């Protein structure tokens, strides 16, 4: 198991022929949207001095509302509950492996992102006075890289409401403001929902040279205007 202080990107894991635990809760660090959730110094501004994220509310198209905020160490139970709601197919699509449970080490990493190389959001819904995590988004950067990989995940019951779009847009803005030059993600070829969303924001969509079942979506952050 890879220590929390030295998480690997999917490409690094591929080179080392390993499948480490990553802060994005994925075994191979291949991030997929619409299934659930989810690197040291790079040549950019000091992330530890970045402006604190201000939580905001999002009104969705069905009149439901969520609060978007940074993930915290108190979100372990919420993340686990969200994972437990997923179907077997959804878990496979997210982790690209059969996941029956989330190890404590994964939850610990996911809820304590590195200030310098990661950022993670959760969307909280409160219904009948009960609050729960219904979506999450994060990026993570490898050591020495100005490219970050992303993940945006939405609970099945909250699809097609515009939540994924708001989360990805926010994540792009944060990554750009913190000096990252490129954002990319590895997406199942069959995940048309994520591919459409990425295209809407201006991501390119190319075949993954290492895996025919994947697409690589890429956005040049510093050279592009934000799209909706």
Protein described:
- The protein is an alpha+beta fold and 228 residues long.
- The protein has a single domain, classed as 3-Layer(aba) Sandwich (Aminopeptidase), CATH 3.40.630.30.
- The chain has helices spanning 10-16, 76-85, 88-95, 104-110, 163-177, 192-200, and strands spanning 56-59, 65-70, 118-127, 130-141, 147-154, 182-188, 204-207, 214-220.
- Strand 7 and strand 8 form a beta hairpin.
- It is globular and about 45 Å long.
- Residues 1-49 have low confidence and may be disordered.
- This is N-acetyltransferase domain-containing protein.
- It holds the Pfam family Acetyltransf_1.
- Keywords: Acyltransferase, Plasmid, Transferase.
Summarize the structure in short:
Keywords: Acyltransferase, Plasmid, Transferase. InterPro entries: Acyl_CoA_acyltransferase, GNAT_dom. Helix content is 25%, strand content 25%.
Fill in the keyword field for this structure:
8-stranded mixed sheet; Acyl_CoA_acyltransferase; GNAT_dom; 228 residues; acyltransferase activity, transferring groups other than amino-acyl groups; alpha+beta; globular; N-acetyltransferase domain-containing protein; Aminopeptidase; disordered N terminus
State which percent range the strand residues make up.
25-35%
Roughly what percent helix?
A: 10-25%
* Low-confidence segments: 1-49
The level-1 CATH class: Alpha Beta
Span of the ends, CA to CA: 38 Å
Largest sheet: 8 strands, mixed
Number of domains: 1
Order of the strands making up the biggest sheet: 1-2-3-4-5-6-8-7
Number of helices, counting only DSSP H or I runs of 4 residues or more: 6
Task: Quote the CATH topology.
Answer: Aminopeptidase
Structural class: alpha+beta
Large-scale geometry? globular
For the record, what is the CATH homologous superfamily label?
Answer: Gcn5-related N-acetyltransferase (GNAT)
Task: Calculate the mean pLDDT score and round it.
Answer: 78
Overall number of strands: 8
CATH architecture verdict: 3-Layer(aba) Sandwich
Radius of gyration: 16 Å
Order of helices and strands: HEEHHHEEEHEHEE
């Amino acid at each position: 198991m890879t220590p929390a202080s030295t998480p690997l990107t999917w490409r690094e894991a591929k080179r080392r022929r390993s499948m480490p635990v990553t802060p994005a809760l994925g075994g191979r660090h291949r991030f997929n949207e619409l299934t659930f959730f989810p690197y040291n110094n790079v040549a950019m501004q000091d992330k530890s001095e970045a402006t604190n994220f201000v939580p905001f509310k999002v009104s969705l198209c069905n009149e439901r509302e969520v609060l978007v905020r940074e993930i915290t160490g108190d979100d372990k139970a919420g993340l686990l509950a969200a994972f437990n709601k997923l179907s077997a197919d959804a878990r496979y699509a997210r982790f690209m492996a059969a996941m029956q449970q989330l190890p404590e080490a994964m939850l610990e990493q996911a809820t304590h992102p590195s200030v310098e190389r990661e950022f993670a959001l959760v969307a909280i819904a409160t219904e009948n006075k009960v609050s729960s995590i219904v979506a999450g988004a994060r990026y993570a950067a490898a050591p020495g890289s100005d490219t970050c990989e992303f993940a945006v995940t939405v609970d099945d019951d909250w699809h097609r409401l515009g939540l994924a779009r708001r989360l990805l847009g926010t994540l792009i803005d944060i990554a750009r403001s913190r000096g990252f030059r490129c954002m990319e993600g590895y997406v199942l070829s069959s995940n048309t929902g994520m591919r459409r969303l990425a295209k809407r924001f201006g991501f390119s969509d190319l075949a993954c040279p290492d895996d025919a079942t994947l697409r690589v979506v890429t956005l040049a952050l510093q050279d592009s205007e934000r799209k909706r």
